[in-house]
Structures are given as C-alpha cells and as structure tokens.
Amino acid sequence: MLNTRRAGNQMRASVIGCGIAGASAALALAEIGCAVEVDEAAPQFTDHQGWVTLGPSAMTGLDRLGVAEQVWAVGFPVVSVHTVDTITGDVTDFPRYEATHRYPSTHVWRRDLLSIVRNRLDEVGVTCRYGSTASVGDLDADLIVGADGAWSATRRAIGNCTEPGYTGQIIRYGHHPRPAPGLPTGVLHFWRHHNGVVGYVADARDGSFWFSRYNSDSPSLRVDLHTMTAALRDTPVREILDASCWASNPIALYELDPNGRWHRDHTVLIGDAAHALSPAAGRGATSAIEDAVILARHLREHAYRVGEALESFTTNRRPIALATYQPTHGQRPATISAHELNLTAGRSQGQ
Questions:
Q1: 178-190: pLDDT as tens digits
Q2: Residue 74 pLDDT class (50, 70, 90 cuts)
Q3: Cα distance between residue 221 and residue 45, in whole Å
Q4: What is the model's pLDDT at position 309?
C-alpha cells in the first residue's frame, strides 16, 4: 500500500525518463509518499523490441513496487547459467537463485516489462507526460531524478561531461517461437569463441532467444547475420536459426564509466545515466531497478533531507557499479540482499 506523508508537507519529485529506471524510480518515490511527475521524450506506445533477464534482486525490487507477480506471469525463470569456452574447453555452471530473494532470474520481453511498470504508474496516481523533453532547468521540484539513459542530458546538466565509450563489440538478437531441440529450457547458455560470445535461453511457452556479441574495431561496421551467428551454428541452436521470426540489425555496444559526478544540489542520476553497462555484464536492467528502490530507501532513511540522501545513495551504489564496470576476472557481480531493498527500513518518525 502507498504511504502518504502529511498534507502540505509532501515532497515533490520529478523524474526525467520513463524507461525501466525512471518508471521504477517514480513508483518507489510514490511508495514513500512523494508526489511524483515523470517526463518521457519518446511517445507512450513506442515499439520496444528486445528483452531483458532480470536478476533475483531486480525481481525483489519489483515486488516492493507491487508488480513482480505480473512480470513473473509474462516472463519465465532462468534457473542457471551454463558457459562453455570453446577456445580453452572450460565449462562453468552456477544457479540463478540467490539467498533471501523469492524469485530467480526472470527473462521478459522489454515491452511487457515497460507496459507493466507504466500501468502501475497510472494506478498509483503518478503523472507521466510522454513526448515531453523536459530538462533540469524546466522543472520545479524538491528532487529531480535523471533516468534519461546513457546519453543523458541530465548528466551534462549537473556538470558530468563523461560520454559513453564503445566497448569494441556489436550485437544482434533473434527470436524463434519454439525451443531449440537438445538444450534444456530455463538455462542461459553462453559459448565464448575467438570473435566474441553467443548465447541462448528458451522457454516452452515463449520460445528461443539468441544473441551474438561480435568483436569489431568500428561501431558502424555492418557484419552480416551469417557471419555473426557462425558460432551458434556449432551448437544445437543451429536448428532454429534460419527459421527465426525476428532478428535485429547490428547494434553497437557502449558503456559509461561510473566514476563521474552522480548528483548536484537536488538532482541525481540513476541507471544508465550514471553507469551504463554493456549487455555483457548482464546487470543493466537489474542495476536500474536496484538504484530506483535504494534511492527511495535512502531518502526515507535520511528523513527526506535530499542532500544527505543523495550523498548516501551514491556512496552505497557507486562501488557496486564500479565492480561491474571493472570486474575481477572469474568473479561474479556483487549481489544485494532482499533486506537492502526494503523501502520501510529506517523510516523516520512522523514521515
């Protein structure tokens, strides 16, 4: 249930961007009693292609926001990860359940996830203006959240001139309505090879999802589909490749160094605006949802004193972003517990 602060003492928050990070932040801030408005530059019904695999902590965050069951219903569980290095022959496996979290990793179409969180905004009374290119200087609020992506104008507005850097890889995604024969469903498979990494995950209901990350000196190089999927043709995925009902164009992958400024005065960056990640990290959407919920938790813990809350939020989240941006070889990304995503932790008296 939403908690409402005292009449006449309600904090006003503005969120720039209504992607996964922005919509989650708006819901989290509404949950702790803020009056929230959102501005999103894109039209409401843009066709969002592609998918995301949410970590267990992301699903816990969505549970705090009242939408995890809906996401679970339209997605499917990813119970483990299986990696084969075709160069060395090394094979590794690890589960995608984590202690304290109710849900495992969950694979979902991006469009379905956005639809669910945006519908929830309507349900809780958050105003969202689509097709609105509002900037920090346009907004009058106690707190402004920049969730406007890797090429964030909000980041530049607070004096952080860091720009995303090309990772040296391009990617293609594809989908087939049936699983590939010979591979288990609910397992995220990776095959490392000389030119990059290919991957696959499937569900009996939702079919096959495959991708190829391919090394390229230039972000604009147009590598043909057959070349980019050659490594998949050495796996059981070959059975469904040529019959895939959808394949993306090549997409250049960028990432953002998280060392730059994350906040100034009453404005803060979250998600890709602060620390954009290559899909290679497998943490982009998960980090965005964690940011959103933890920002709201810090605001409540610091009795809605914005300056203190933003400093505390940055101190908490930057090390996790840095560990993902510059990972130690062989070390899995840092995880957070369900307790850390508890919006009621540290609630101040009278708030």
A1: 999 999 999 999 9
A2: very high
A3: 30
A4: 98
Which tokens in the block code for residue 197?
């990494």
Q: How far apart are CA 193 and CA 292, in angstroms?
A: 36
**pTM for the full model?**
0.92
- The DSSP secondary structure of 226-287, one letter per residue, reads HHHTGGGGGSTTHHHHTT-SEEPPPEEEEE--TTS--EETTEEE-THHHH---GGGS-HHHH
* Structural domains of the chain, ranges and CATH numbers in brackets: 12-76+102-163+256-341 (3.50.50.60), 166-253 (3.30.70)
Token pair belonging to 203 = 């569900």
Q: Is the pLDDT of residue 275 over 80?
A: yes
Label residues 195-210 b or e (16+ Cβ within 10 Å = b).
bbbbbbbbbeebbbbb
**Alpha-carbon distances of 190 from 38, 86, 248, 252, 340, rounded to whole Å:** 37, 10, 19, 19, 30
